[in-house]
Amino acid sequence: MKAEKCCMLSGITQKTLNRYQEATEKIEASMRRLAEGKPDLGSADKVKSTRISNTIHTLKTANKVVKQNQDLLETALAGTDAIHAVVVKMKEVAAEAQDDQLTSEQRQALVDEYNTLAAEIDFVAENTEYDGTELIDGSFGTKTITIDGPSSDQDVSIALGDLTLEGLEIGAYTDSNNQAVAASSLSSVLDAEDAVIRLEAALATLETERSNQIAKIERFDFTISHLGNMIRMNEEAVATINDFDEAAEMANLTSYQIEQQTALALMAQANQLSTSVLQLLGG
Questions:
Q1: Domain locations in the chain?
Q2: Residues 6+ apart with CB under 8 A from 151
Q3: 134-162 pLDDT, tens per residue?
Q4: What does CATH list as the number for 70-214?
């Protein structure tokens, strides 16, 4: 009888100890979740969350590449606009120089102004750069960028022309027949007339270049907006998977702590009872 009662008390104590250990483990897990601010995910949710996170990383990288190249094009456009404004002014000066009633002093003043403006074109063309890359001095050419997508990649070409005096055929250049052509000049009425023709052609070239740059910038605007929407939707999906109800977790923690305290109290009572029984049986 004595052994039977002792075994019964031992069994009760072991069950209570198990409850105490389970409650302690629940408390530790709950406190970890509260510290991390996220729930424990099942294997399927973990795989899904990782996959979406990788997609977000790819999209953000693509968005960065597009934005950098849009900035490059906007820099090129600023240089192109500056040169366009100079050429417009040069054409006005050349038009004045077509007047055959000009004195030599008046013509020379126009020549000096024209040459100063011409020098400004090369200065702008040679100093328009992005991240150390010259853009409109003829050295850029055509470059292809790859926009990595989550399911497929897209190649986009960027072409920038030569907007120097030579490239615009305002300064000295070599024509299609490999013949050297002198720089435009306002030294005479005929020279001024030729300069106007060449400047009009240069303006047409600049306007085409400008249109191409703007079209590409607008395309990148759309791409950036689209990628931004995709990033936002994927981030919302990850947030939903990792949604953490702190208030509910705090309530659970309180419940686990009560379970732990109850088990602890029961173990104390069981130990006290065991001691009393043994004393009675011993007596």
A1: 2-39+244-282, 70-214
A2: none
A3: 999 999 999 999 988 777 788 999 999 99
A4: 1.20.1330.10
